[in-house]
Amino acid sequence: MSVQEVTTTAFDDQKPGTSGLRKRVKVFEQANYTENFIQAILDGMPAPGAKDSTLVVGGDGRYYSPECIQKIIKIAAGNQVKHLIIGHKGILSTPAVSNLIRKRKADGGILLTASHNPGGPNADFGIKYNVSNGGPAPEGVTDKIYGITKTLKHYKMIELPEVDLSKIGPQNLGPISIEIVDSVADYLVLLKSIFDFDSIKAYLHGTHRHDSIQNCVSSPDFGGGHPDPNLTYAHELDAFVTPSDSVAIIADWAQEAIPYFKNGIQGLARSMPTSGAIDLVAKAKKLEVFEVPTGWKFFGNLMDAGRLSICGEESFGTGSDHIREKDGLWAVIAWLSILAAAEKRGIKHGIKGVLQDHYQKYGRSFFSRYDYEEVDSAGASKMMAHIESAFGQKEFIGSSLSSQTGNTSFQVKEAGNFSYTDPIDKSVSKGQGLFVKFADGSRIVYRLSGTGSAGATIRIYVEKYSKNEQEYDQDTQVGLKPLIEVALTLSKLAEFTGREKPTVIT
């Protein structure tokens, strides 16, 4: 079996966002588009590189995944990758990939997911590279990969027979060994080492019909549903906890409810747009707390240095140092552990009771995100430039911004473009989001998202802190209405984009 060098033409739009390269399926299906990016990943791998390496491959099972995996196998073989560990039927959750990389001491992994973006032939696909610690590739690596994509002239491959992804076990193809593994087994072992499942089982007593289990069969388009877990797409939810509150509550209960943390917590962290609810927990428990840019990769260095145990993002990513990725199932089981512990403590009414208990202890951080998807990129950029220009005016700091609702005004205390210096490797990430902080502790953040597949996505985040018990049960949108009005007026969003309403409100 000989290596073929296939001549190709570079693409200029393969810059990875905060979590890999995400585009419409039709874009990835273009001739050589997928092959180019896979080759760039292998060329951009940190030393010692792709030769003789072991990589974990899998994804969320969305449309185009099987075809992409076959391409990865052929190109990996052409680049002298030694071993591929692939999930059964190509399916591995992101945390399962991170765990396998760490457990098997692999050199990295290629994940096929576009996360919260929809799946299907007319929807989105994504490819993400994770490094040997199990976490997303840091900016230095993704920048190198992007540089390679712009100059690529050929990719290397070996024409191999199609691999049967449904057959668990080893498959030797000659130049490369393939191992198809159970998608869940190793990850389940990890979860059992973290949580007290007997306690959870005792809490979930009673009889439950088998058909109460939902969304457990893999589908290329997620059964026609939307994978973004917010109230716009999940009307059937009874109680909703914002991701910002969720990670704060998990951090507060962790030592009491989760055996993994019995010996202590090293530190807490959140992404910059995420509300400061977790900061209050850190202060009460005398823990270090970090504010990092959006993107799970920024948590990895802190975890590797032993300074971070629990972290989260307002976009529903939550996790801990058990792996180096966000872990939704971990968060669900953490909440079941908390509910079991809360019942023993005498806290009633389940999730709502835990929420009220938290607000009584720490106060409430009202938080909401407005997403404007597939906005004209030029208009979005002009809007961001306008906001930054306003921040730069001498008279802006100290000025009052007024809303129409309730005759409310907010005095500007600080404004700027968030920059982060990694405390471990001292790398600097600039331009991570425009923010304005007010004298009463309220805050507005503006970002252009790096996870959309077409056009630009504008995200506006608004936060207000309250220690007024009369407001704890207030609807989030009602509580934030004056601040939202200020955010829209300051940005002139409607003027620059033509949008009157957001696509999604979280």
UniProtKB/TrEMBL annotation:
Record keywords, A-Z: Isomerase, Magnesium, Metal-binding
Q: Which reaction does it catalyse?
A: alpha-D-glucose 1-phosphate = alpha-D-glucose 6-phosphate
Record's GO cellular component terms? cytosol
Q: Which residues form the signal peptide?
A: none
Q: Which InterPro entries match?
A: A-D-PHexomutase_a/b/a-I, A-D-PHexomutase_a/b/a-I/II/III, A-D-PHexomutase_a/b/a-III, A-D-PHexomutase_C_sf, A-D-PHexomutase_CS, Alpha-D-phosphohexomutase_SF, PGM
Recorded GO molecular functions are: magnesium ion binding; phosphoglucomutase activity
What is the required cofactor set for this protein?
Mg(2+)
Domain Alpha-D-phosphohexomutase alpha/beta/alpha residue range list: 14-154, 246-344
E.C. designation(s): 5.4.2.2
State if Metal-binding is listed as a keyword. Answer: yes
Instruction: Name the GO terms of the biological process aspect.
Output: carbohydrate metabolic process
- Report the family membership: Belongs to the phosphohexose mutase family.
State the protein's name.
Answer: phosphoglucomutase (alpha-D-glucose-1,6-bisphosphate-dependent)
The record lists the lineage as: Eukaryota, Fungi, Dikarya, Basidiomycota, Pucciniomycotina
